[in-house]
Amino acid sequence: MPGEGMPGCASGTLTRETDLRMFIRFTWVLGFVALVSIALLVACSGNYSPSNDGLVLVPSQGEAIVQSFSFSLNKGGVSTIDSNPTIPGPPDQGFPGSIVIDPAGAFAYVTSVNTPDATTDPCTKKSVIASYKINTDGSLNAPLSTNLGQNVIPVALAIDSAGKYLFVANSSVCEPNNLQTGAPGTVTVLSIGSNAALTAVGTFPVPATPGGGPANLVALAVTPTVFPKQGSVDQSPPCSLKNPPSSEFLYVADAQNNGVWMFSVDTSSGNLTLIPYSSTQADAPAGSVPSGVAVDPCGQWVYVSNQVSNNVSAYKICNIVSQPICPVASGALAPITGSINGSTFPTGNGPGPLVVSPEDNALYVLDKAANATAGDISAFQISQSNGSLSPLSPATVATGNMPVSIAIRSDNNWLFVTNNGSASGNGSISQYSVTPATGALAPSGSGILTDTYPWGLAVK
C-alpha cells in the first residue's frame, strides 16, 4: 500500500534534512570562524611594536589628515596603523605639508596653511604648527596648534639634535598661484617644552640681495650637537673619533636668489645671527633654483640640490680653523671640490629634497619628474676625506609618480619616498632597503597606497 511505504520515505527525508541542517550549521560556524579570523588578522595587521617595527607618518593634503603606517624592521612588511579613517587633522587649518619627528620619537610636528578666501585673496594665509603625540601603538593623538601669524607661509621644518628648538622656513611665494607676496621669506624659531608645547623665540628675516628678489626660502637644515650612536655591523659609528661641537648652525636654501643663508644658533636662547659668506656677499652661492639642503650627521658637510641646473652643490662647514679654506671657525660654508664641475655634482632631472645616511657615507637626492611620470633617486657615496660625491651602484633607483619627499630611518636600514600622484588618483610611498656599509638601495615591496595628495614624510 502506498501508505505503508511513507514512513520509510519520511524517515529517509528527515535523515537527509537533519544532515543538511547539520552541514549548513557546520558551514555557517566555519564561515563565522573564518570571518572572525579575518577580522583578527585585519585588526592585528595594524599592530605596532616599537621594538620590532618602524613607523612612517605621511600628511595627506587631499584629506587633511596624517596617516600612520608600521613596517617590520626585519622584513619591511607594511600595515596601516589606524585604517578608518586614519588620523584626522583640523580641516579649518588648511593643507598639511612638512612633517618632522622629534629626536626622542615622542612627538610629530606638521605645518598647516589655510587660505580663508582663495578666490579673491589667495595670498592671505593663516598658518599653524600642529603638534601630535605619538602613542605606543603608533597612533597619534589629536593635535595641539601653535599659531604662526598672518601671511606666514611655512614650507619646511627642522629640529636640532638636542630636541630644544623647532626651525621653520617661511616662503615668500603664495601657492598654488606661485605669486610673490612682496615680503621676503623668514625663519621662525620655536622652543620645545614639555608635552610638545611650542613657545615662540622669534622670526628672523634675511637681508635683501642686491639685484635679487624677495628671498624664497624652501628648505633648511641644522648642524648636530649630538652625534648618532648607532653603526652598522661592519662599521663603527661614523662620528666615533670626533667630539660633538658646542656650536650650532642653521642653513637655509633660497630658491629666488640662488643662495644659501647661514645662521649661528644661540643654543641657550634659540636666537639666530646671520653669518656672512664674505665681506661682499651675504649668502653662499649655489646653483640654479636651490630646492633642498642637508647636513651630514657628523656636522662636516652641507649639500644643496639645485632644481634647474640639475646638480648638487657641496660645502665644507667652517666650524674649525682649516687653512686655507676656513680661516675662521664661524660656521660659514666653503665650496669643496671633487668633480669636473668643481663643487657641483650632476643629478637627475629636477633634484629636490635630499638626505644623508646616518652612517655618513651616502647622499640620496630625490629627482622630481616634470610631470606625472616616475622620478628617481640619485645615490652618491660621500668621501670621508673631503665630502666630495661619487655615484653609488646602482647610481639611480626609480620612485613612483611625482615624488615630493624623502626620509631615512636612523638605523640606516630603510628609506622611504612620498609620491604625490598615481594612476589610481591616490598617492603612494616607495620603500627601499639600505645596505648600511655601502649605502646601496634596493626597492622593497610594491609600494604603499596613501590617501590623495600626500606631502611630507617622517620615519621613526
Topology:
Elements: H1 2-45, E1 53-60, E2 65-72, E3 78-80, E4 87-88, E5 95-101, E6 107-114, E7 126-133, E8 144-150, E9 154-159, E10 165-170, E11 173-174, E12 179-180, E13 186-192, E14 198-205, E15 217-222, E16 248-254, E17 259-265, E18 272-275, E19 284-285, E20 290-295, E21 301-306, E22 311-317, E23 333-335, E24 344-346, E25 351-356, E26 362-367, E27 374-382, E28 389-408, E29 414-421, E30 428-434, E31 441-443, E32 448-449, E33 458-459
Antiparallel strand pairs: 1-2, 1-33, 2-3, 2-4, 5-6, 6-7, 7-8, 9-10, 10-13, 11-12, 13-14, 15-16, 16-17, 17-18, 17-19, 20-21, 21-22, 22-23, 22-24, 25-26, 26-27, 27-28, 28-29, 29-30, 30-31, 30-32
Tell me the total number of β-strands: 33
Strand content: 35-45%
Mean pLDDT: 82
Provide the CATH top-level class: Mainly Beta
Question: What do these coordinates show?
Answer:
- The chain has a single domain (45-459), classed as YVTN repeat-like/Quinoprotein amine dehydrogenase (Methylamine Dehydrogenase, Chain H, 7 Propeller), CATH 2.130.10.10.
- The protein is 10% helix and 43% strand.
- Strands 25, 26, 27, 28, 29, 30, 31 and 32 form an 8-stranded antiparallel beta sheet that branches. Strands 1, 2, 3, 4 and 33 form a 5-stranded antiparallel beta sheet that branches.
- The chain has 460 residues and is mainly beta.
- A hairpin with a 5-residue loop joins strand 5 (95-101) and strand 6 (107-114).
- It is built from 1 helix and 33 strands.
- It has one helix at 2-45, and strands at residues 53-60, 65-72, 78-80, 87-88, 95-101, 107-114, 126-133, 144-150, 154-159, 165-170, 173-174, 179-180, 186-192, 198-205, 217-222, 248-254, 259-265, 272-275, 284-285, 290-295, 301-306, 311-317, 333-335, 344-346, 351-356, 362-367, 374-382, 389-408, 414-421, 428-434, 441-443, 448-449, 458-459.
